[in-house]
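Incident log entry.

Two folding requests arrived from the same account within the same minute. Monitoring flagged them as a possible duplicate submission, but the sequences differ. Recording both here for audit purposes.

Request one:
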Amino acid sequence: MRLRVLLGAILLSVAVSGALAIITPKTAEAIPAFSRQTEKSCSTCHNAIPKLNQVGQNFRTNGFRFPEDKEWQDVQDLKHTPLSARLALAGEFNKEDGSAQSSKLKIEDFKIHAATPLGKTGKFSSYAIATFVEKSVALGQAYGQINDLIGEVGHGLLNLKVGTFDVALPFLSHSQRVITQRYFAQEALGILGARNRGTIGDVSEATEFYNTAAELNGQIVGSEAGDITHRYAIGLYQPHGLNDQNRLGDPGLYATYAMTFLENYTLGLIYKHDVVNSTLDPFTPNDKKGVNKWGVAGEVKLGPFITTVGYFRSDGLPNTVGVFPGNDTNRALQNYMAEVLFIPNRLWVLGARFDHLDQELAQSASRTTVMGRYNITPSVYCQAEWRVTDSGTIGVTPAPDSLNGRIYLVTPF
């Protein structure tokens, strides 16, 4: 019965995909509001939606502006209305050791985006996204940015951003996952992008919460394609509590730096002073203090391949009473990640990721995910994923290993 439900989900996705291929305009883009404003195609900014290329990273840091435009349109008519939406349908298959398999078809989420520079000089830019899922509404990223505090107009040498948003590397973040499965560096360590909190069960599917922050950011973009590009940010933020006990009272600090050279090579560093974000330690002592987290990552684009690797570390937890011996235990969490995307043409994207979490004094965890995507139009796509999870331990109890399958149909408009 469950297999028939999953099969029905796949057939429904294919049928809807075929209909969309007929009725959806071929000029549809990743975030149509940007396309309407800039009159550029999605491939200008994306390698594979939603992953940004160098042009897309420049565009985002620069307050959604291309410097060559010199001035920007006021929001004055429907063409320039900075609104767009995205609907995602999903079919699921889940199997945990010791449990019966399950499957379901659902609306994964419905998102409404708004983003634009304001005024002819583009001095101020804004971005907001609201997500409707399972009869509730969640506000995701929502921020304003004052552009060009110093330097030429339209180049984003130094900007001030305030609101709730991704705190991550410019090329590796929650909002740029082509493989929808979350990174351990996001889900367990809380060092990349949005984070989950207070979740019982599968934390990899939990609702995501963003940090509220004030950030100075900017970039130095070379005049020639092969020149070195620098992107940098430093900020203060107030992290969400993981639950009522596990929270950092004082604001956290973070800094990021990324360098792109020879067009296709990128190196990045990130540092955060934060609380540990891991259900692998559910015991939260009252005297929990902030911990240091840091990571280093690199990305290489060679022909149709994009390879990303990263190492991320958290200092660990002090005084984990009742779980590990001693009252001064500091348990480190380390994460190793490698991902490869193969984009042979505009129709197909294939990918694989291996993610490993090494936790001191406890069994490690790992996750292997593979995916395939077919682009019906430049922005409407059908995607399938399969992951195998070795869950390690939660506290002192082994967590069940699992197999999970997903198929998505995603359409923006």
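Request two (distinct sequence, not a duplicate):
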Amino acid sequence: MSNDREVLLKALEFHGHRCWASVAGVRAGLAALRVLAVQRSAGRQLHAFVEIGEDHGGMCFGDGVQYATGCTLGKGNLEKTPYGKLAVTLIERASNRAVRVSYKPTLAKRIAESAFMVKRAQGIEPDQIPEAEQMELVDLVWNAPESDILTIGEVFHFDREWFPELMGFVPCAVCGELTARAYLRVLGDKQVCIPCSGYGR
């Protein structure tokens, strides 16, 4: 557990502030790794779908998952599914074995009544709240029994064909900016980026 605690603390540093949803994401990500019996993804060995969507207070869950699993936006192995839920499906690409882990509402009342969340509701930024109040909420979610806060599904087969990365960049013939080959468009006899092409995508 001490190693997991180190992952948690590094995840919170990566996230930028201490909050309950990012802790829930770390716990969900670590649980998914354990169930699939896989290591954190250094490359693209794993793929994650986080169901957080956009524009709500629990999106921090995504950063917790991202740090715990190693699935990141930059590696292209993290995708958002817009359901507004605190859930992740983690897939091992080599076998297409997958598991879905979701966060339960068990602690919702205690979280809402915490000093941290009361201050957040007043518009106070997370990093302006005393560290002791931040850590009180972090520890509430971190120390809760896994069965109280997570629903861990059965391992299942995820039906998807994985395509290799397309390597290489080419300067756009109009603006000169480097553009990944897959995103070049043909305009007359020139290879151009999407904004210069006039196409929507």
